[in-house]
Amino acid sequence: MNSESTSLPYTDTKPVGASDFYFAFNATFRFIEQSLGTEGLRRYWRDLGTRYYAPVTQRWKARGLSAVATHWRDFFKAEPGAEVEVEQTESEVVLHVRTCPIIKHLRDNKRDIMSVFCQHCYFVSEAIAAPAGLCARVSGGNGSCTQRFGAALPPQDLEVIASCASHVSTSSPLTSES
Question: How far is CA 39 from CA 46, 58, 115, 123, 129, in A?
Fold first, then answer.
């Protein structure tokens, strides 16, 4: 990938990313939640969306929903194991995440996934979308979900984002990530 052929905020020479970073995401989110609490974790996710993804926000602001659709197609094309359909209408972009690459990889490797893990998709995406005049909404989760991006969406109900409580014994050395 290079910056000319992708809408992503980073450049990479590999066609697909490294799924081992998924371990770091899960461990980092857990560490922040344990250190700073739930609100601290949400603040981190919002800052990630606002700061790191600022170039994405600018593209979405300038080009609207077509830029949203392009971004997510590029994003999931680079994620190993992702099965995602991106649908664009006149009023919204809908992501049908049939296989979430992060959840699948963490489960395949017997990692203990923090219960609120899927909420990061809402908090990060909403932080990217809001300055562009858009909203992000997530329903489902725990391996598959639906994400919507548009200008006039109802408020997010965090209860419709599934818990990712693992079915893995936390006594296993494979599950200790912090």
Answer: 10, 26, 15, 11, 20
